[in-house]
Write a structure and sequence with these properties.
Helix content: 25-40%
Low-confidence stretches: none
Oligomer: single chain
Number of helices: 10
Distance between the termini: 41 Å
Shape: globular
Largest sheet: 8 strands, mixed
Bound molecules: S-adenosylmethionine
CATH superfamily: Vaccinia Virus protein VP39
CATH class: Alpha Beta
Mean pLDDT: 97
CATH topology: Rossmann fold
Length: 280
């Protein structure tokens, strides 16, 4: 039985960060005519009811998507992401939050494909319910790291992989670093994105060292902190490593990160960082 349920955290600042950047990556992939495949190794349920008692318990969306909702001054780069959230809330009130599968579904063109993988049986069942009849989507039950072996490389030879672990087990940073090496070994030309929580500095530095030692190159690092580095009572920030970011992504992401820093900071200035963990 898996303890982590994303409904407790849906729509929080980390989701805003991840999904707003995910939307840009997908749009950049869709610039070329050739079809692509999206693989989500830790897909979650796809849609989250923010009025559910679990979502209300911590109400993390209040410091996340709710800070963007209804604003008229949001930078254009966030428009595709905001449209994905608005599509789930047609009456204009924020009731539902889309997870990565539903955000991504909006960006698939008729020839593109999406492969969703999830280890929690209930979340998997919900994904099946939502996407089971969708011919462009495959829904799989199992371990996300095994899914990398099962589904890479995709037959399209173009695509995006999102590894969005819940980090609820010891040594998960090691698993994610190894997954980066494995995904690259099987799909060296793919856009490969790995989300991680900002924890104590030594753990993050060890993670970076392990990733760098994999020999994989062209790894862009994006980080957003909404709370000070000394904060340990809840998630203080998060990051995304993107291997082979599409041309133009870095330039789009820089002002997005800065805007999120200002908009999502909690009781301080927040911080953000963008740079090459390993250059080309
Ligand atoms: C952070 S949530 C995913 C959120 C989703 N990607 C999104 O952005 O909307 C992490 C998910 O991974 C699932 N999970 C945990 N361990 C897993 C594993 N080893 N393989 C696949 N899924 C796993 C959890 O059940 C949870 O639904």
């Amino acid at each position: 039985m898996l303890a982590y349920r994303h409904l407790f955290h849906a729509g929080n600042f980390a989701d805003v960060f991840k999904h707003a950047l995910l939307a840009r990556l997908l749009l950049l992939l869709a610039r070329k005519d050739k079809p692509f495949c999206y693989l989500d190794t830790h897909a979650g349920t796809g849609l989250y009811d923010l009025s559910h008692p679990w979502a209300k318990k911590l109400a993390e969306h209040r410091e996340g998507i709710a800070r963007l909702w209804g604003r008229k001054d949001i930078p254009e780069a966030f428009a595709p992401y905001m449209e994905a959230v608005q599509a789930e809330n047609p009456d204009g009130k924020l009731h539902f939050y889309p997870g990565s599968p539903r955000v991504t579904r909006r960006f698939l063109r008729p020839g593109d494909r999406m492969v969703l993988n999830e280890l929690n049986k209930k979340d998997f069942a919900e994904l099946k319910e939502q996407f089971g009849r969708d011919r462009q989507v495959g829904v799989h039950y199992g371990d996300g790291y095994q899914a990398l072996k099962a589904h890479l490389p995709p037959k399209e030879r173009r695509g995006l992989v999102l590894v969005d672990s819940s980090f609820d087990r010891a040594k998960e940073f090691d698993r994610v670093a190894d997954a980066l090496g494995l995904a690259h070994e099987r799909f060296a030309t793919g856009v490969l994105a790995f989300w991680y929580p900002l924890m104590e500095a030594p753990a993050i530095r060890a993670f970076e060292r392990r990733v760098a030692a994999s020999g994989v190159r062209k790894i862009l690092k994006l980080e957003l902190s909404v709370l000070p580095e000394t904060w340990s009572q809840s998630l203080r920030g998060c990051g995304l490593l993107v291997v082979n970011p599409p041309f133009g992504f870095e330039e789009e992401a820089a002002p997005m990160l800065e805007w999120m820093r200002v908009t999502l900071a909690q009781g301080g200035p927040g911080a953000c960082e963008l740079g090459w963990l390993v250059p080309e």
